[in-house]
Structure formats: structure tokens, C-alpha cells
């Protein structure tokens, strides 16, 4: 499967967010990861619709919106209208996961189901056919710059084996604590969409991106 680096703007410099986004696009990034945090499902608040709307005209990169939001089904239309290309919702935060995935597809977007580190893969049992991507959190969500939780590597391997067995080409995205020392382990386990926030945006963006991209 094709491998992608998906820079998370959570760690970008918001005094010149547009420049940072264009910097990763110049490096060849195809996906931009957009971490929405509501201060309820996760213990922090990040950004939302006005920021997405304002950056949409900047690039044609795939805007991969990660809703760390309680009852995220309330916001599918808003994020679709604001320019999302894909919406990932947390299985732990949606009462009606099957329905919200249909709603995302209904807006012509790609779907994603996110699982926190402690959440079992069994929550996916009845939605494999509706998930274009599964996001396995490699940290407990809420902050950038955290340490990858090693036990999730086994979870990635198990999920890749299930997908292969079912003949599914579902993307496996990982998010949190991925940098030069850990990217090999998540790729080897079977992830193919790699979110990196601080490892890309802290310091020299072009150099950071190129260094990480070399592992793909
Ligand atoms: C949830 C967020 C972070 C962020 C990546 O906490 O989703 O994981 O995207 O953070 P880094 O790459 O800085 O660990
Ligand atoms: Zn994320």
C-alpha cells in the first residue's frame, strides 16, 4: 500500500499557519492532518471550523479532519461545508457509529474510525465495510509531543492481518509520538498513513519532512 506522511497542524506556528502549510506542500505532502479537540472528549481545546475554512483555498492537499469531539455526528455537515476531504470520528465518542459513517459518505467524503490506545479492535467488527481508514491512536489524545505507547504496535499488526484476511485495502493511520526513532516501528507493524505534528513543524519544516519521508 502507498505510504503517506500526514503533517498535523496542531504543532504548526499559528502566527504564520499558511506559510507552514505551504512549506509541507512544497515538500510533496498529499495529506494535511487537522486535529479538532473539544475539551470534553479530550482534555484540551485546539481549533475548528473558522481555521479549516480559512486554509481550504490554500492548497488541494487532502484535508484529513480528526474529530476528537464528543458526539461528532453533530458536526459532519459543518466540517464537510468547511472543506474537509475526510472525517475521522472516535468510536468511543459516537453512539451511532454506523450512521455517522454513512453521513460522512453521504457528503462524498472519506470516512475514518479512530480508536484510543486502550480501545479494542472489536469495535470495528460491524463497520469494516464503511471505514476507508482506521486511525489507531499511538498516544492518549489531547496533546502533541507525547511518547508513543508501544503496546499499540501489536494492535497495528493485528489490524493489518485482519484487513489482509478480509481482502480490504483500508488505510491504517497512526497518530501521536511518531518521529525518527519510532516511524520504522509503526511502518513495519503495518501502518501506511503516518501523522506527525511536532516531528514536522518544530524546527526546520523542510528538513524535518525530508528526514521522515525517507523512511516511507
Ligand atoms: C492527539 C493529536 C496528536 C498530534 C500528533 O493528541 O492527534 O497526537 O496529532 O502529535 P505529535 O506528532 O506531536 O506527537
Ligand atoms: Zn490527530
Question: Please, could you describe this protein's structure?
Answer:
There is one protein chain. The chain has a single domain (4-213), classed as Aldolase class I (TIM Barrel, Alpha-Beta Barrel), CATH 3.20.20. It is built from eight helices and eight strands; from the N terminus they run βαβαβαβαββαβαβαα. It has helices spanning 17-26, 49-55, 76-82, 97-106, 152-165, 183-189, 198-201, 205-213, and strands at 4-7, 31-37, 62-68, 86-90, 110-115, 133-137, 171-175, 193-196. Helix 2 links the parallel strand 2 and strand 3 (62-68). The radius of gyration is 16 Å and the shape is globular. The N and C termini lie close together (11 Å). 45% of the residues are buried. The chain binds D-xylitol-5-phosphate (DX5) and zinc ion. Zinc ion binds next to strand 2. The site of D-xylitol-5-phosphate has 21 residues, from strand 8 and helix 7.
Summarize the structure.
The chain has helices spanning 17-26, 49-55, 76-82, 97-106, 152-165, 183-189, 198-201, 205-213, and strands spanning 4-7, 31-37, 62-68, 86-90, 110-115, 133-137, 171-175, 193-196.
Amino acid at each position: 500500500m502507498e505510504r503517506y506522511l500526514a503533517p498535523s497542524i496542531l504543532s504548526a506556528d499559528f502566527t504564520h499557519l499558511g506559510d507552514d502549510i505551504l512549506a509541507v506542500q512544497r515538500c510533496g505532502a498529499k495529506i494535511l492532518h487537522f486535529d479538532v479537540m473539544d475539551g470534553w472528549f479530550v482534555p484540551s481545546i485546539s481549533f475548528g471550523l473558522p481555521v479549516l475554512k480559512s486554509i481550504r483555498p490554500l492548497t488541494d492537499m487532502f484535508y484529513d479532519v480528526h474529530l476528537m469531539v464528543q458526539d461528532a455526528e453533530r458536526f459532519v455537515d459543518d466540517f464537510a461545508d468547511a472543506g474537509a476531504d475526510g472525517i475521522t470520528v472516535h468510536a468511543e465518542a459516537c453512539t451511532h457509529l454506523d450512521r455517522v459513517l454513512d453521513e460522512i459518505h453521504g457528503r462524498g467524503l472519506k470516512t475514518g474510525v479512530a480508536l484510543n490506545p486502550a480501545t479494542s479492535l472489536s469495535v470495528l467488527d460491524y463497520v469494516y465495510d464503511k471505514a476507508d481508514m482506521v486511525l489507531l491512536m499511538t498516544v492518549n489524545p489531547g496533546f502533541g509531543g507525547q511518547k508513543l505507547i508501544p503496546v499499540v504496535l501489536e494492535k497495528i499488526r493485528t489490524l493489518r492481518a485482519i484487513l489482509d484476511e478480509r481482502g480490504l485495502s483500508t488505510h491504517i493511520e497512526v497518530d501521536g509520538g511518531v518521529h525518527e526513532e519510532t516511524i520504522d516501528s509503526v511502518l513495519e507493524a503495518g501502518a501506511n498513513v503516518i501523522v506527525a505534528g511536532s516531528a514536522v513543524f518544530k524546527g526546520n519544516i523542510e528538513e524535518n519532512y525530508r528526514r521522515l519521508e525517507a523512511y516511507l
